[in-house]
Specification:
It comes from Paenibacillus baimaensis. This is YneQ. The chain is of the alpha+beta class. It has one domain. 38% of the residues lie in helices and 19% in strands. The protein has helices at 7-18, 48-57, 78-87, 91-96; strands at residues 2-3, 23-29, 39-44, 73-76. A four-stranded antiparallel sheet has the order 1-2-3-4. It is globular, with a radius of gyration of 13 Å. The two termini are 23 Å apart.
Length: 100
Amino acid sequence: MAFGIKRAELQQWKATVARGDIAFLTHYWFDPRFPNVNTVTKVGCSDLGKLAAWCTAHELNPDYIHHRQPYPHYDLIGPRQIEILQQEQLWHHLERFKLL
């Protein structure tokens, strides 16, 4: 279950993903499988080759890409989420969701 984002933010992420560009969407999240995790960042791109290359460049296994059309994405959670948001200089994600 996702919460803490506005419809416009989701629409912008979807448009960027559909265009074939890498897009980041961080939101609050609840999943009982991960009781200590309360945020997720979805890294999306409709160009699966570009998304797989992005994963490989960040030492992430592209096999874990969610091939959900029309918005394929990779879910970042936990310490790697924070590390990659820092590498990507997405400070507003880190600040807004109090990840630091």
